[in-house]
Amino acid sequence: MESPPPTDRDTATLADRIDAVLPQTQCTRCGHPACRPYAEAVAGGQAIDRCAPGGAAGIALLARITGRPVVPLDPAHGTEGPFTVAHIDESVCIGCALCREACPVDAIAGGPKRLHTVVTVWCTGCALCLPPCPVDCIVLVPAGREWQRTDAQAARQRFLAWRRRTAIAEPVTTPAPTPEEGVGRAGAEQRRAAVAAALARARARRAATAGGRR
């Protein structure tokens, strides 16, 4: 006799169990915007081999929970490696705040036009802060420790807090094509102008430093 198809409640319960063992780095390398959506996708039948931070041990846990065979990590979604954290070269940082806005766990401290620094104990090593940096002053460095389950639990809570904050700051509704669009474009232009000004200040600072060494 065939087993009945899973109900929505069964799928939700399975997604909860899967989400509980994911590393909660929120790195998006699995192809989903966060760990929870990937957990829901796996509960719905998606492959269990897409979480690079979880690595082979994580795949084994997902296989045990879902009853599927253990498979190698799909290299299209990253490779397994030691836990790393972001490091900002403050001598190069221009204070544009783009990295801070990209961090899904609020692990970057510093305001606009001020140097930024990484709160290392909060950093998940997701690397989402690297692409938006206009001066490439962020690198990933070895954390010198392993990512623990307590780290994952704390990261989930910080991510949920970040998501609530950004949802309030950025309404999900799309404004109609009215003057609001012009305001949005003006905001984007202001952002670009601020970054350009910061870059100019950084270049001037470096030129002055170089001149002083002669």
Explain briefly what this protein structure is.
The protein is mainly alpha-helical and 214 residues long. The protein has helices at residues 8-21, 35-43, 55-66, 98-102, 149-169, 179-212, and strands at residues 84-88, 108-109, 117-118, 138-142.
Provide structural commentary:
The chain is mainly α and 214 residues long. The chain has helices spanning 8-21, 35-43, 55-66, 98-102, 149-169, 179-212, and strands at residues 84-88, 108-109, 117-118, 138-142. It folds into two domains: 8-77, 3-methyladenine DNA Glycosylase II, Chain A, domain 3, CATH 1.10.15; 84-169, Alpha-Beta Plaits. 44% of the residues lie in helices and 7% in strands. β2 (108-109) and β3 (117-118) form a beta hairpin. α1 (8-21) crosses α2 and α1 packs antiparallel against α3 (55-66). It starts with 7 loop residues before the first helix and ends with a helix. 26% of the residues are buried. Mean pLDDT is 84; it is low at 171-184.
